[in-house]
Amino acid sequence: ASRGRHKRSGRSRCPDSNSIAGRGILAPAIINEAQIPLTEEEHELLKLGPRFIYNDPKTASRRRTTELATLKRKIEARFFEKKVSPGRPVEQFIAELDVLLQKLHNSPINYQKQKDIANQNITYDNLLSTIQSSQSQVINLRNTITKKKNYGRLIKRLKHKLHLKNIIIQKSDKNKVFHLGKLGDYRKKSEEYIDKTKAYKCLGTEDLLSNLIYHTNKYLLDLRLAKWITQKQYEKLCINSNEVELAHLYYLPKAHKPDTPLRPIISGLKHPTIKISKFLDELLRPLFNKMAAKTTVNSGFELVKQLQKWSKHNIRQETLFCTIDVADLYTMIPQTEGVLSLKKMLDHLKFKQVGGLKIETIIRLSRFVMQNNYFSYNGQFYHQIRGGAMGSPLTLTIANCYMFFYERQIVKQINNSGGLYFRYIDDIFLAINWPARHLFKQIDRWNHFDENIKLSEKIGSTADFLDLHIENQDGQLFTTIFQKPSYEPYYLPYSSIHPLHMKKNIIFTMLLRAIRYCSTFQDYLNEREKLRIALLLNKYPNKFVDEQFNYISSKLNIQSLTYNNYANYRQQVIDSPIKEKVPVDYAKTIFVHFTYCSSMRTFPRKFHALWNKYFGDSPINEVLPILGTRNVKNLQRQLIHTK
């Protein structure tokens, strides 16, 4: 019933890839499929992972003038809205803020404090050394503290080395660690993928951008002149030639699968049709979500709640769980039928127009987006002639609509049999009280509903769907967290220059997930300790981890979890309503962003004190400044080039 697991071959995790015996935990790794020799320094850098940001006060200082000028314009605009002159307080506030930021950017790093934090981890590294034989890690850690690293120079040297060796560095598709692959392998797999899908037509080496800009603006102007769209909509959607660039294709290596297939991503953030795609998606996706609310889930937690409800009256000893994968969904959907599925949705919901647009206008614009997916790859230009671009917002909504109408008969059949059916994009989950032979026969029948949809199934008393593991144990439902065999315990490193609340949020989110997913206290304890080990491997101090664990318990009103009370507390957590986002009152809010560096931990408090000093009794005293951070480039942005 299940496709066999394949051994991973031809790759190495370099160099400390040993698993912690019996725990299924791996140290954060690099997947070095190219098997390029790395120095110890290069390996330590890559092991920090794609999200790591090193301290860079020079960049923060360089950006300060622009950031202050932006903030000044925003404050002045609020005064002008009140028909009041900004006056000297704004000038004085900006000047004092400038002095404060200069001091913070020029603050020396407290290396003694970093040593103290590191020493908390060294104790744990010594504990792990018996398992991982990595005592050298401790020495390396001390060295990195006593000797300030020049990350910029190290990154530049590594990029040059990889370029000379024709090595591509990418973030792996699922486990989000660095993957090193050979350029030749990427090109070969790309050719095989393009040939297999028949979704792309090569147009040669002539740049298509200027022609596509002209074609897009002319199409929008024709719609405006024919009064299909308003002047305001036309101005919103038309494009400036200085602000656009042709989409480009790149691949993420699926290192968790045999032979490392590639996931194609068409990056079109500045593509000429992106404005239309976003505009349509913002209109249509909420409508799809409403239409498909009873047959779709967006997380493992949503499925836990549905399974709990269903299993109370329906689960039996012979109940089967089934997961179904839809092959190459984005590229297999025909463009014409995909766009028509949007019309089907609007007819189904009995809409005559959406957001002031007639249905015919929506269909015309959607067709234009689908038929004008052009991109570059390896010096050649391509046109996507089948399916939608994986990376275009509208593609997901079209794929979802197409699947909704494909699956209606299946959903009806499952519901009539007292089963459970849910889908997340191209992954389907079923729970049903049918004999396995009958279920196989039905899936084979469903595979003939549409020549574009190819299903492959796994059937049994256990199932893995998204990040949820599900079991039927003699008619009892059990759930816990699912981690792929290729799982890497990589989290944002504690030493990364991110605000502390981001690191706290990681622990909160992961432990909350453990409580929601784990149906037994023992599974919860196992997952909590796996999380602790993963955090310690990413250099989180043990004391900090314990503090966050305790904070989560108090936040969830949990006194102390035990075998006896776990089920009741867990159910309270599952049943507690998820807080809805409070809508932002933009008229009374100013968003403030400054580039973050390690010396700016006290900045929020000092900023708000200054704000109250100058504007507490001013005409804009009801305006609330919301302080956000800008980051310098992380390792992913510094090392990886997708073009």
Keywords for this entry:
643 residues, alpha+beta, 49% helix, 16% strand, disordered N terminus, Reverse transcriptase domain-containing protein, RT_dom
Q: Could you describe the 3D structure shown?
A:
The chain has 643 residues and is an alpha+beta fold. Among the domains are: 29-80 and 152-196, no CATH class; 197-299 and 327-397, no CATH class; 500-575; 589-641, no CATH class. The chain has 22 helices and 22 strands. Strands 7-14-13-8-9 form a five-stranded mixed sheet, with helices on one face. Helix 13 (335-348) packs antiparallel against helix 14 and helix 17 packs antiparallel against helix 18 (521-537). Residues 1-26 and 130-147 have low confidence and may be disordered. It comes from Rotaria sordida. Residues 1-11 have a biased composition (Basic residues).
Number of helices: 22
Major beta sheet summary: 5 strands, mixed
Task: Indicate the radius of gyration in whole angstroms.
Answer: 27 Å
Cross-sheet strand order for the largest sheet? 7-14-13-8-9
Structural class: alpha+beta
Q: Extract low-pLDDT stretches.
A: 1-26, 130-147
Q: Please, what is the average pLDDT?
A: 88
Distance from first to last alpha carbon: 41 Å
The 3D shape can be described as globular
Total beta strand runs: 22
Residues in β-strands, percent = 15-25%
Specify the helix fraction band.
Answer: 40-55%
Domain Reverse transcriptase: 233-481
Biased composition (Basic residues): 1-11
Region (Disordered): 1-20
Protein name: Reverse transcriptase domain-containing protein
